[in-house]
Each structure stands twice: as C-alpha cells, then as structure tokens.
Amino acid sequence: MAGVYVDDLARLNNEIHEQINDLYPCHGKTAEQEAALCLSLLMGYSVSMYANSEDEAKKKTVLRRSQMILKNQLPSPLKIQLHTIYDKLLS
C-alpha cells in the first residue's frame, strides 16, 4: 500500500494555496458562478495548512461574500454545499 509522504503533502498543500490565491480576486458573473467560486475558495481554505493573518483575512472576506449569496440565492444543491462549508468554517 502506497503512503502519502510529508513532501507530497507539503507540495499538494502548496498547490492548493497557490490556486486559492489565484482565484481569490475573481468574482462570478452570475450568482451561480459566484456561489461556485466561493465554495471552491472555502473548500481550499478548509484544507489548507497555511494559517497566516493574510489568509485568515481573505477567508473572512469570502465568508462575507458567501453570506450575501446565502441570503439572496434561490435554493439549489450548490447553495446547500456552500451553506455546509460556511457553517463548518464558522464553528
């Protein structure tokens, strides 16, 4: 059975962190796109091992963006997923 090595985990975590930083300034053109983008960002923040103050500030901004989506968007599977990760990160 193949194991996950520390170097592999660090590399994967770094890749996730880079992708989060690339996506962070983006905004969806529609409510559905914005919800999908926020979901992706929050999923990335939930597994990232980086915990610096800049990332925490970005995560809080995405949580605020998500809150607006959750208030305004009609019920959908995407909204349920976003609500689930939103609640997880707030607890």
Descriptive terms for the model:
91 residues; mainly alpha; Serine Threonine Protein Phosphatase 5, Tetratricopeptide repeat
Question: Summary?
Answer:
This protein is an all-alpha fold and 91 residues long.
Characterise the protein shown here.
- The longest helix is centred in the last third of the chain and has 20 residues, at 53-72.
- The protein is 76% helix and 0% strand.
- It starts with 5 loop residues before the first helix and ends with a helix.
- The model has no long low-confidence stretch (mean pLDDT 91).
- It has one domain (6-90): Serine Threonine Protein Phosphatase 5, Tetratricopeptide repeat (Alpha Horseshoe), CATH 1.25.40.810.
- It contains four helices and no strands.
- It is mostly helical and 91 residues long.
- This is Transcriptional regulator.
- It holds the Pfam family UpxZ.
- InterPro entries: UpxZ_fam, UpxZ_sf.
